[in-house]
Amino acid sequence: MVDGGIVGSQIQHVAGVRQVIANACENNPLAASGGVTVLGASKSQPAAMIEAMVAAGVMDFGENRVQEAEAKWPILKKKYPEIRLHLIGSLQSNKAADAVALFDVIQTVDRVKVADVLAAEMARQGKVLPCYVQVNIGGEAQKAGVGVPEAPALIAHCRALGLVLEGLMCVPPLGHHPAPYFALLAKIAKSAGVSGLSMGMSDDYETAVRMGATCVRLGRVLFGERAV
Ligand SMILES: *Cc1c(COP(=O)(O)O)cnc(C)c1O
């Protein structure tokens, strides 16, 4: 059973987010014409919270770690087969087989090795998972993602492998205004002919939608503050 009290507040959170997105799209030529996917970033959230979010109408979820996802998602996916589960954290190549088996979308293709291993695993398992190339849009040493100058070559490599490239993904640097970074991601996508833009988190999703995001990845604003 899904707790009615939790569902009530989740419905309010989701409605609030959808209103912000609708306002950001209104009379805005840069906004995504095909709508914006609200992805629940469900790291550290228990199954009951996720089920409340499903009841509130969220159908896309993102997990950062393959192992954590394996512990909670097989049952949830069986129960709600229409959910799309996205990997939004770094993928180690030795986890690629497990990731391809469990996830529906991989948003964190950030180097040639990962692209190669994913393509081989999809062929072996007979699955086609849409992918995003993750770009280290602020060029930060500690952050995952392919460098901006190297992004076009990695995109070309993914295409040559036959990967289905759904879009580009980024996490802009903390403490900077995110708009220039979102604009840069949109520019790279446009010149490479990639349509999806996974950008925007709880603190900056309104800006991201204004700049053309097709997918916003939301944790705190949907689920409430994380305990950890
Ligand atoms: C946790 C996480 C999010 C969501 O973060 P919030 O600030 O809680 O909205 C989005 N993207 C990635 C890659 C994350 O790890």
Describe this structure in words.
By secondary structure, the chain is an alpha/beta fold. Helix content is 44%, strand content 17%. The chain is built from nine helices and nine strands. Strands 1, 2, 3, 4, 5, 6, 7, 8 and 9 form a nine-stranded parallel sheet that branches. Helix 4 crosses helix 5 and helix 5 packs parallel to helix 6. It starts with a helix and ends in a 5-residue tail after the last helix. The chain binds pyridoxal-5'-phosphate. Pyridoxal-5'-phosphate binds next to strand 9 and helix 9.
Task: Summarize this structure briefly.
The chain has 228 residues and is of the alpha/beta class. The chain contains nine helices and nine strands. The mean pLDDT is 95.
